[in-house]
Amino acid sequence: MKAQFAMAHSKHKLDVRIKRAYLPSSTRDGARVLVDRIWPRGIKKADAAIEQWARDVAPSTALRHWFGHDPARWAEFQRRYRAELKDKAALLDALRGIARERPLTLVYSAHDEQHNQAVVLRDVLLH
Among 12, 27, 29, which residue's Cα sits nearest to residue 106? Predict the structure, then answer.
C-alpha cells in the first residue's frame, strides 16, 4: 500500500527547469516551452527544438520594456509579473500538467540567468 501511495505521489511532483534558448537542447529537457514574447534573435525555429511557444505567459510588452533586465528593478518586476500571471490560470495549469508527466524546460533568451521571467514563472508553477 505504501509503495502505491509513493508512486501516485511522485507522479504529481512537478519537474520544472529553466534554460537559455542559446544553449543546446538535450533529451533530458523534456518538453521545451519558450516563455518569451518575442522569438530569440539568431535562432532558427527549426533548430530550437521548441515544442510550444507560450508567449501568452510571458511578461507583457510594457512590463518587459519597463524592466529592461535591470537587477535593481527585479523585486518590483517579480511582483508585477506575478500579478499578470494571476489572470492566466488555465495556461499555468496546462504547463503544470506537462510538468506532472515529464520534465518541463522553460526556455528564455535573456542573458541574465538569475533575473528573468523564467525564474519567476518556475517559482509560480512550483508553488
Answer: 29
